[in-house]
Design brief:
The complex is a heterodimer of chains A (127) and B (278).
Chain A (H helix, E strand, L loop, with lengths): L11 E3 L4 H8 L19 E5 L7 H13 L18 H10 L9 E5 L3 H6 L6
Antiparallel strand pairs in A: 2-3
Chain B lengths: L14 E10 L22 E6 L2 E9 L7 H15 L5 E2 L5 E2 L2 H9 L3 H11 L2 E10 L1 H11 L1 H10 L8 H30 L5 E4 L7 E10 L3 H14 L4 E9 L25
Antiparallel strand pairs in B: 1-3, 1-4, 1-5, 2-3, 6-8, 6-9, 7-8
Classes of the chains: A alpha+beta (127), B alpha+beta (278).
InterPro entries (chain B): GvpL/GvpF
Main location (chain B): other
Family (chain B): Belongs to the gas vesicle GvpF/GvpL family.
Chain lengths: 127, 278
Amino acid sequence: MTVSQRQGGGVQKAPQGGLAEVLDLILDKGLVIDAFVKVSLVGIELITIDARIVVASVDTYLRFAEATNRLDLHAKGGKDLGEFMGGLTENTMKGGAKGKTKGVLDAGKEKWDELRDERRSSRKQEQ
Amino acid sequence: MSAEAPEQDSGGERIGSYVYGILRSGQRIPEDLEAVDTGSESGESGLGLVSSGPLAAVISDVAVDRPLGTRQHLLAHERVLNAIAADAAVLPMRFGAVLTDDDAVRAELLDPHREYFSRALEDMAELVQFSLRGDYEQDVVLTRIVEENPSIRDLRERISGMDEDASYYDRVKLGEAVSQAMDAIRAADAQAVVDALGRYAVATVVKEVSGETGAVHVAFLIRRDHRTDFERAVDDLGDEWSGRVDLRLFGPTACFDFLPEYDVPDGDTQPGAAGDGG
């Protein structure tokens, strides 16, 4: 299930992904039962974690800005951060540490009591 | 609970039939698959098949008085369907489909929609879905963005001399510009994926990426006998993008993204029993 990061070539293959990949399929896609069944449908409350990050948010922008500022462009002939670094050791310190741990699941726990309307409207496939 | 759902007495607990998907009757499903957790002592814990005529539904017992959606529930739903899809055509239900009992599965799901399900199964018989996902190597893509965009470069240089509070709006501006530049790269990369792999697929859907460094997410409908060619082409693309985009291929799965649209029951009547379980 879990696929590890791998540098340099090769594509990881797995029958299915982790929770984030699974949610995307089975909550958004598939035949919607209440399109077929009316009487004996049992409406059970669904509790799910919404794994989708809202990409365009201020928090995202700030993280991008931080990551962009951390870049070391020196090796590629760009301007070196160092020349602006006068007394900013503190910033440099906290730069490397957090690095690349980017959880896809942003722990936005959400209760979807009622998905029926949304389901119905999005039943047709989006292209 | 559900007003119109007939009561079912199973030692005081109400048990419903959780439906995973629909396949041709007579088809075998793999053994030892883990079902969605029953959540009850009185329900049976394994998967079962409810058959009627040419069709069968994959079901398991589930207690109807507690919410669905734990990690186990979600993964079990997908694993069951994918394990079946590896060898046989199956129409996947969206997560959370529960009927009052097996008789209702026959009488209200399979029988009234026999034509639709049969036709869809026939059409999907030789097809499986694969999903290709990729994430950018963050520093690599950001470096490219900075190098290709003078305005971003300038903003970045200005900010790096300022303290956090003073640079707040500039940092938001920088991040927004980076985000937009990344979107443009994403669009180009999605097109590159379709160009490189589309010819091996019966159909292709470009999907929204997830995660801030999400690069591509494309679903492919693949003929079973074209799998090898497709996977080889994916590997070639992975080599080409190595160090820039980290690609992952998931599948074969049930064809969640490619269910046929014809004759879908229109579901316009509001079902009284829907969604009042909480």
